[in-house]
Write a structure and sequence with these properties.
Helices cover 78% and strands 0% of the residues.
Amino acid sequence: MKPETAAFLAKAQQLLERAPLLLAQNFTDEAGRAAYLAGFHAAQAFIFERQDRSPKSHSGVQTEFARLAKDEVAIDGELRAFLGRAYNLKAIADYETGPGSNISYAQAAAAVESAAKFVEAILALFSRWE
């Protein structure tokens, strides 16, 4: 595994560990954001390992991940859709104001669970590639 890939995965793991702690304290916006970012960094690791580079923008990572993961049987359609769905939570947490501008506990809990599955699937691919 390339050092850059390992750094992306370490960041993903760090955020994945933080997300349930935030959720337990009812910091739902922060938990949803952490869940998305865990997936974002895992996707960057996946991309970097395949291409020796990774986009920096959220849309660039989402697009490139979707392109590269489309034929990976270990990443099903539900997991491929995770980044787009979870980005919506990050956008709510970061930019929305007024009514509906908070992530519900149920939304955050689902995102944390999906992020764990997403990162696990990426890690499983890496172990298969070694």
